[in-house]
């Protein structure tokens, strides 16, 4: 009897090429240590509620009523739920035929897609067509759907920032495409240079790769930089000149911790540029309920908006979306609530605004505490987290540590992060999981641990780092 169908040797070879460090060796080791009773701070994943962030009240009130519509018939419902939550729940239940237990359209509920389009119009000041907005199970699934649309084989190249969020490298490997890196410049706060982009494209083309798409992550993960309007114009012009489509991953658009570079969407800048580019450049933008001050990662809600994508291609994307029948319906309600929150004058507005503002202000303070904490160590250099929810310090490691790591068969930053985890319980992701320049080492942590614990965590890091540097001096 030969190999069985699901023997390791028989399965899809592309799966074996996939690496996804966010849930990789460090995460698995941290989970083991936790089972052994060690207190672990899982600051490896941008998972706000897992680190103590409270869900916003209003969305949970509405979803509770949508999940349990019988509560709406209870004479005391008005004692437990504010009137605007009751109204919104009834609105969604009337819009979603059969309630949350029924499949929706494969593109998502039309009413919610309309709410997303209205949000985009308010944000950017340009029309947005609900027919070109698809709701997805988190932005991850949307990214995978679009990369699946683009990648025809290994000859197809996707320009990806390095360091990058490994959803991209993993999906490109899984679908058998080619990742074409463009390096962000740490010394210019993770800025990108269009000349480097041109060189990356030229190098790929010389290797017979057809570069088809450029990915930007704005604000950046793991790097946290926010792109300026000028940066975005440069990138859009570059894509137009090189006949590339642009994927704008904007899941952190609510997570902005500085005033110099507020979030501006790729869609807005593209429309501001006017024809021909605004009519021709193909753009797909992604968003989610997982990030921002919502942090509702577990709900699995997201969307993508298609700009200048031909109807026949849209039809194919719809057809493939139909295979999965329906995006997560409760998450669609969360998406509707996120893009259409309580307004000034609504009963719940004050509470919603207070909660949201409180979370964002705390994240801004934590970004500062963490950046300063890292920079207080002489061998650590850390750019400020302008946006998103991560800190990505460069750890300058002594040769002896690098040598010891090599003998242990590990990347130096994996070795360092494992030692950090064992010593302090702080679970991070090594920079090698995101890509980095040769011989330069980083780690990624989130800025999510509770604010009151942050100084203690940074002191614990500093103590470990000083001892490590002494040990391997
Ligand atoms: C840039 C980026 N895009 C898309 C996603 C996917 O989000 P959802 O599928 O939840 O909508 C993430 C998640 N960030 C991961 C999850 O937590 N830490 C990370 O680096 C992300 O960082």
UniProtKB/TrEMBL annotation:
Domain Aminotransferase class I/classII large positions: 82-451
Keyword annotations from UniProtKB, A to Z: Aminotransferase, Pyridoxal phosphate, Transferase
Gene: LOC103487718
Pathway of action: Photosynthesis; C4 acid pathway
Record-level Gene Ontology MF annotations: alanine-glyoxylate transaminase activity; glycine:2-oxoglutarate aminotransferase activity; L-alanine:2-oxoglutarate aminotransferase activity; pyridoxal phosphate binding
InterPro entries (alphabetical): ALAT1/2-like, Aminotransferase_I/II_large, PyrdxlP-dep_Trfase, PyrdxlP-dep_Trfase_major, PyrdxlP-dep_Trfase_small
Subunit structure, interactors included: Homodimer.
Example of a GO cellular component annotation carried by this entry: peroxisome
Protein name: Glutamate--glyoxylate aminotransferase 2
Organism of this sequence: Cucumis melo
CDD domains: AAT_like
Keyword Transferase applies: yes
Family: Belongs to the class-I pyridoxal-phosphate-dependent aminotransferase family. Alanine aminotransferase subfamily.
GO biological process: L-alanine catabolic process; photorespiration
